[in-house]
Amino acid sequence: MKIAFLGLGKMGSGMARNLLHAGHELTVYNRTREKADRLGREGARVAGSPAEACRGCEAAVSMLADDHAVEAMGLAEVLPAGAVHISSSTISTALARRLAATHAGRGQHYVGAPVFGRPEAAEKKTLIVVAAGDAAQIERCRPVFDGIGRQTFIAGGEPWQANAVKLSGNFMLASMLETFAEAYALLRKSGVDPHLFLDVMNALFASPVYANYGRIAADEQFEPAGFALKLGLKDARLVLQTADEAAAPMPLAGVIHDRLLAGLAQGQAEMDWSSIARVAARNAGL
Amino acid sequence: MKIAFLGLGKMGSGMARNLLHAGHELTVYNRTREKADRLGREGARVAGSPAEACRGCEAAVSMLADDHAVEAMGLAEVLPAGAVHISSSTISTALARRLAATHAGRGQHYVGAPVFGRPEAAEKKTLIVVAAGDAAQIERCRPVFDGIGRQTFIAGGEPWQANAVKLSGNFMLASMLETFAEAYALLRKSGVDPHLFLDVMNALFASPVYANYGRIAADEQFEPAGFALKLGLKDARLVLQTADEAAAPMPLAGVIHDRLLAGLAQGQAEMDWSSIARVAARNAGL
Amino acid sequence: MKIAFLGLGKMGSGMARNLLHAGHELTVYNRTREKADRLGREGARVAGSPAEACRGCEAAVSMLADDHAVEAMGLAEVLPAGAVHISSSTISTALARRLAATHAGRGQHYVGAPVFGRPEAAEKKTLIVVAAGDAAQIERCRPVFDGIGRQTFIAGGEPWQANAVKLSGNFMLASMLETFAEAYALLRKSGVDPHLFLDVMNALFASPVYANYGRIAADEQFEPAGFALKLGLKDARLVLQTADEAAAPMPLAGVIHDRLLAGLAQGQAEMDWSSIARVAARNAGL
Amino acid sequence: MKIAFLGLGKMGSGMARNLLHAGHELTVYNRTREKADRLGREGARVAGSPAEACRGCEAAVSMLADDHAVEAMGLAEVLPAGAVHISSSTISTALARRLAATHAGRGQHYVGAPVFGRPEAAEKKTLIVVAAGDAAQIERCRPVFDGIGRQTFIAGGEPWQANAVKLSGNFMLASMLETFAEAYALLRKSGVDPHLFLDVMNALFASPVYANYGRIAADEQFEPAGFALKLGLKDARLVLQTADEAAAPMPLAGVIHDRLLAGLAQGQAEMDWSSIARVAARNAGL
């Protein structure tokens, strides 16, 4: 399949590489060219602009930082008619709706396909893909999904529904972090070692996600960040926006947002988002 | 070991049976005798009062409904000097401190040993035991812990610390329920099936606890209750009391408490505690 | 003073009329002309477009529904160089910053001047004006402020600071409403008449604002709305956005937002915003 | 009227003095006798024990620190049959119910009569009295209410209802404090002086209570405390307990409780309860 790949950050690099190794004809583009060149040495064609990347492609995958970056990329202006934009960035449901309409207006297709997983999972092709949009287009994109992840779920017929699922999933993760944060603060003030508690929780939940994040927070090893607090805050805002649009109150999302915002205000923007444990600890006088 | 077992409810029956089968010399007591008689037919001695149950015992295990039931049992008055009270009920840290002091004042010992697991786990001897108290006494009680659970964790040198861990663990579970509740409401209003979301979360968290509770809430199968909402509310209160004592603010615990309380006010006391999903749905106009 | 007035809704009509009666040379514009004609019969000139309204004016007052309406009006394109835009709408601090920059880029001036008070206060010239911006421009606008309100406060040298004050003030009001809502629910479930409680609060706070809103909520007289719930929700969003920009967590604003959103989801969009009391009551099983 | 007065703290002293000056035959008791002696010099009889104070009295007014102090006083054991206990302390509704039952069981009467107002108001006889209980007993106690306050409100036929009103009123005050706290933090981070905002709020709410507390928080003049944070926290707990009993969720009360608890954890127990503004400021990175 002739694929354009736009955005070669921590996540995008691994995804693009896997598509390349799966045998697709890949043209890559990144704002700073250096990262693209690395993939160029592995066999990808390197484009100097989004337009060049998309020329003649059948599908264009975008994996960018946020709403602003996706809008600025302006794929609708350069994608061939009939081609499909596979949008993997974590963006707002509102933008997803706008993009779907814009592409449709130009005879192009748009599929929402955000992913779950950290950079290592992107490397190892163990991402979880959540896709939504027109069923035929999703079938068409299967080789791409299979090329980047271990499992694909179909969220619905509207592309933005995939983003609703992705944001809800991040909310599940953030809630786990806040829960650990509060429990650890309580236990530290009760003279109980968070590591002991984590052992019990591992026995109870038996989840690698709990084990991983629970350990980071217990070790207070917040740097370097796996996922920066400022990005977690961005996602928390998107969750609340989606809740607002859907008229579905989410008090717990509000608590999480406030914690991340306090973390930002207290200088933790670049730390791992699990460092909200520090904010909880500070509020407990620790 | 000569053991008295007090409280043969859903949890206690399984625990007592396993102690019996492990070869301990067991005397059981229950407020309503019928449940005790069943164990009597399996080889336990059946006592007509706590005093009779504890006569000559080395350890007395209590597994009762709440603070009130444990206080009403009055074990300190009937336990032989030198014997140890293994307190497995989910009680407040405040009561645990009072009990420890009372027993100490009478030359008896007191160990906190609440457990994680549902009645099936109690039957199958797969409970997780969290013990705390004097190290020598905990060693002495090992055969009991090994007889009722699959793994034992030591939370600290003060018996009430085990209760702090138990309550924190229940808080982790309740938080998961509230998170599912909010996410499901959002997704239902977004036209996404909660079961689809649950599949994604199972792929992400890979936790049997998520799989189980997530399914109950997605199916809205809240009756019969695995764990009644009114009991969850009781535990939420204990968590907040412990937070209060430790001066560790827990905003998320507050959100959970309010949800459970709203569930109670709306007639869901006997439903499963995951039925807070209904409260969240109602607030979203569903 | 030659003044253009744009936006003749419930608030704008009264403000414009008072400026007219104070002897200013007033040209009015409203999207639906009928309201403008009424002022025309009282002596105002009626313009058919914002451009016509602003021709040759020294100051243009805008009093519109929301950010979108203010941006759509596009005053920067029609205001004479050297003239001042007096922005009285309740808009976001972000938009206020953008507008200030846009006007400055065209040699125009921009002053933030939102007001506190209901339509009756606008009629009676008893509004409270909160102004911010360049000190000289504020002095220049004094006759306008004096013409529409009873008192003017200067919030700072940046126009958006007036909006921060306005939004914070609305937050104070909304918080009072939520507090009444929770207290009334508690008291109704305790068999105490909210009117009795209101009498006590009137004796305690001695505030006409408490008396007025407390009575609406006690009477459950939510229609017709003095200030519609959907507008209160809009403002709650602006408060949270401002909190986000300033990195100042506001948990109570989050609670208020959720309540208003639940009210919207439950069909109360057009009711008075004090009808969040209904949401609180419903959560209490009433 | 022959009255016993128990509890001569900041509030009780002023109340007792006014009853004395109103011509009642007053016997006073205080745990530390010195404060009682001062009233003795003004004409009161000084008792060495609650029993001595109550001998032959028609009414006994108690004004003590908390539930524990009221229970420890044990008035039911010393009050003459037919006499009435006027309970003015800020206690839980649960204790009020227990006391009512205990007194009734001994042929005594019990009226709930908590008061609003600070020590100065107690001195100046400008307290607001909220009474509840049997109508005939309330009539009988009128001379006492008139002797200590400027206005009396009847909350209902059950004594504990007066406590529900008192606690709800304290919740209204605490909510105002938290609202100021969040608004001030936001405005400080926006470069706006809280004093300016307070001026606007005074123009808007026109409430002496807002003026007073708003100024304390703007000045950050938290010592000496008018009402200590630790006492505010005690009351917040009682509000939440009452909400729990009534099954009326109060999310805002939860936010307030957490703030006060954080204040306690951060060393502000003895500061004025309006010092939760410091906690909000700290969370905002100030």
Q: Count the helices of chain A. How many?
A: 13
Proportion of strand residues of chain A: 5-15%
> Oligomer, anyone?
homotetramer
Secondary structure: helix percent of chain A: 55-70%
Largest interface: A-B, 61 and 61 residues
Q: CATH homologous superfamily name of the largest domain in chain A?
A: NAD(P)-binding Rossmann-like Domain
Taking pLDDT < 50 over at least 5 consecutive residues as the criterion, the unreliable ranges of chain A are none
Which CATH first-tier class of the largest domain in chain A would you pick?
Alpha Beta
**Major β-sheet profile of chain A:** 6 strands, parallel
Approximate shape of chain A: elongated
CATH architecture of the largest domain in chain A: 3-Layer(aba) Sandwich
Rg of chain A, rounded, reads 20 Å
How far the N terminus sits from the C terminus of chain A, by CA atoms, comes to: 56 Å
Order of neighbouring strands in the sheet with most strands of chain A = 3-2-1-4-5-6
Question: How many domains in all of chain A?
Answer: 2
One letter per element, helices H and strands E, the order of chain A comes to EHEHEHEHEHEEHEHEHHHHHH
Task: Return the average pLDDT of chain A rounded to an integer.
Answer: 97
User: Would you report the number of β strands of chain A?
Assistant: 9
Structural class of chain A: alpha/beta
Q: How would you describe this structure to a colleague?
A:
4 copies of one chain form a homotetramer. With 286 residues, chain A is an alpha/beta fold. Chain A folds into 2 domains: 2-157, 3-Layer(aba) Sandwich (Rossmann fold), CATH 3.40.50; 164-283, N-(1-d-carboxylethyl)-l-norvaline Dehydrogenase, domain 2. The first copy, chain A, is 56% helix and 14% strand. The first copy, chain A, has helices at residues 10-21, 33-41, 50-54, 67-73, 93-104, 119-124, 135-148, 159-189, 194-205, 208-219, 229-246, 251-265, 276-283, and strands spanning 2-6, 25-29, 45-46, 59-62, 84-87, 109-112, 115-116, 127-132, 149-156. In chain A, the strands form 2 sheets. In chain A, strands 3-2-1-4-5-6 form a 6-stranded parallel sheet, sandwiched between helices. In chain A, helix 4 links the parallel strand 4 and strand 5 (84-87). Chain A is elongated and about 65 Å long. Chains in contact: A-B, A-C, A-D, B-C, B-D, C-D.
